[in-house]
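Many introductory courses stop at the sequence. We go one step further.
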Amino acid sequence: MARQLAQAGVAGVFSYAGRTERPVAQPLTMRVGGFGGVAGLEAYLKAEGISHVIDATHPFAAQMSRNAIAACAQTGTPLIGLERAPWQAQAGDHWQAVAGNAGALRALPQAPARVFLAIGKQGLAEFAAAPQHHYLLRLVDPPAKPLPLPQTTVVIARGPFDVAGDSALLQDHAITHIVAKNAGGSGAEAKLLAARALGLPVILIDRPDLPPRRVVASVREVMAWLGHGATERGV
């Protein structure tokens, strides 16, 4: 999305949440950090003369999306969501769809298991309620403080990942279960393809509900929505 905007000469700002120590560089002006809730985002949109907002946050960054919906409604700023389609089960998959981390925790067996907990570093504390399991975590950055899980192995890596690598990862760590968020896209799908090939069960967390908004699945659709109006001010 950022590349297309830059190539089209659209003045834009790329906003990162700030949870990754070394975010990928972008061809647009970058800012890092929160806005201070709905009111802070409203003030930012007005101060910067933002004419359009593209919500391309992670499908599970629900609070940011809710804030964007509310702030854009209050300021009359056009908003569009750029959201990759969720993954769909295929033949050979052993998936269980659950609601939230709590649902995933309930779906894990009572007996000790070896779990690839592929949910990022947010929400790990909830799984401390099942300390009998050994958890494999794959993180972008090394943990800055002790993890809340007593039995963990941490792998530091940045996607996209491939099936061969994820198959080896699951086998090397004797994984019996996978817990993941249904984020969609190709960058993190390899673990699901590897699980299918290995016959492993996957506990897949459903996306959070959001207020109504216009959502598209491709950069091309966003560019068509923008037209030429965004070049006058900023995105």
